[in-house]
Every structure is written in structure tokens, then in C-alpha cells.
Amino acid sequence: MTYSQLLELSSTLLADVGACTMHSRIRSLTPGKQLVGKALTVRVAPGDNLAIHAALARAQRGDVLVVDGGGYTERALMGGIMMTQAKATGLAGVVIDGAMRDVQELQALGLPAFAVAVHPAGPFKEGPGSLYGAIQCGGVEVHHGDWVLGDDDGVVVMTEAALASLVAAAAAKKQREQDRMDAIDRGDLKPSWLDAALETADIEIVKKPRMY
């Protein structure tokens, strides 16, 4: 099953094989928590979370709330109360191109949360906004139903059509990396590809100075 395979992978492996990577400004507010699921997409006006409330009322277990907040960070779009509701609903986590608040509560809840920033000011509840449409989040176009994986290294997005091939490629890369780690344990401290790469690259190796 692809979902269970995703749980064994990381954002770094998937990014290396071609998954779309969100901007580095979107970081985990709940270190150590992995997020895996399908996107429920939301777009809001800067600093306004009315559409997020509408999304939470319609969310299904396993959804990942992915919010296009326009990168606005002077008002938090979600905090402890809404995240408690999200956890009770069974959401897999939240990714916001904007700000959140109540960090200690979020970490105690343990529901994966990713955002651009933390800010104490609360949001407006006036709209406009939208649900289920294509959005921009962290520089990536996200469609409702796309797969999202987030961890301490960042967030990646994959279409349903590309998922199986990306998972297979990432799993193969994971095995290659494990093989290299095993080789290091055996004392093989130079990658097999290094000499050939250095022959064709413009890498200057300055002669070591004599040590006295």
C-alpha cells in the first residue's frame, strides 16, 4: 500500500527523486512529527481564517489542511483551539503559508503543524476565501487530493499520478543510502563515484602546505 510505504520515507528522499518541495520558510512547529496525507486545499485573505473554519467543518479523517495564506505573518491563522478541533476530527496535520500561534499547545497536542512564522495576534473572520481549489503554498501549486509529506526537513507535494513512481524511486534511493552507510561501517570511506566526478569537474585542490 502506498500510504504505508510513504510512512517509511522522508522529505529528503522524495525531494531527491523529484517531488515538489515547499519553500524553506515553511518549517515544522512540532519537531519530530511526520505528516502524511492528502491535501484539503484552502485559500484565505491575509490574516483571515473564516475559510479555514469552513474547511474544518467539512474535513475528513486523514486530510492534510493546506492553507494558502499568502505568506502573511502578522496574524495567526490557527492556534490551540482550532488545532484541537483538527486533531479530534482526525486530520493528519496542517500546513500554512502564513502564521500560527500557541506553540506550546501545538507541541503538547502532537498534531503535525507547519507554518512560516509564529505570531500572537489572532485572525479576522470575514472572508473572502475558498475551499478545494488549486492554491499556492510555499511556492508550490497544490491541488485538492495531492499527497503531502512533511517532517523536520520540510514539506513535499506529489500528485496522485506521480505518487507510485516517486515512492518507488525514493525507496530505491533509501536502499542505496543504507548500502553506503554499511560500506562506511566496513571502513570504505570514499564513495566509488568520487574520482570520476573529480576528473570532469572544475575543483581546485591546492597543494597542502608543508607542516613544521
TrEMBL record:
Record key words, sorted: Magnesium, Metal-binding, Methyltransferase, Transferase
InterPro entries assigned: RraA/RraA-like, RraA/RraA-like_sf
Required co-factors: Mg(2+); a divalent metal cation
Domain of life (superkingdom): Bacteria
Source species: Comamonas kerstersii
BP GO annotations: methylation
Positions with a binding annotation for substrate: 79-82, 101
Protein name as it appears in the record: Putative 4-hydroxy-4-methyl-2-oxoglutarate aldolase
Alphabetized Pfam families for the sequence: RraA-like
Gene Ontology molecular functions: metal ion binding; methyltransferase activity
Binding site for Mg(2+): 102
